[in-house]
Amino acid sequence: MRKQGVSRVPRGPYASTRANQLGLTTRQVDILRLLAEGLTNAEIGARLAITTKTAEHHVGAIMAKLDVDSRAAAAAVARESGVLGTG
């Protein structure tokens, strides 16, 4: 790529993200776990010491990666795939 004039080669996803069967980051799994508990964006933000808006962005990214249109559907996909574990 550098020979073709590309000055910066993208690093790509972290190994932990590549290893996740749904392609989620570690932080997204943390947020998905709280989302599955039924927490709102504000509650997720408070629990993780992030802003409500940041939680909203994470939830949106999770829903896009999972190709779902609701929080409940995202939680269901996560449960069915085993990403949330057994506990």
Key descriptive features of the protein:
87 residues; Arc Repressor Mutant, subunit A; single chain; mainly alpha
Number of strands: 0
So what's the CATH class of the domain at 26-80?
Answer: Mainly Alpha
Could you state the CATH homologous superfamily of the domain at 26-80? Winged helix-like DNA-binding domain superfamily/Winged helix DNA-binding domain
Nearest-integer average pLDDT = 87
How many strands, which pairing sense, and closed or not: the largest β-sheet?
none
Percentage of residues assigned to helices: 55-70%
Secondary-structure topology with pairs:
Layout lengths: L14 H5 L6 H11 L4 H8 L3 H15 L4 H11 L6
Written description of the protein model:
The protein has 87 residues and is mostly helical. The protein has a domain of 55 residues: Arc Repressor Mutant, subunit A. The protein contains 5 helices and no strands. Helix 2 crosses helix 4 and helix 2 crosses helix 5. The protein is globular, with a radius of gyration of 15 Å. The termini are far apart. The model has no long low-confidence stretch (mean pLDDT 87).
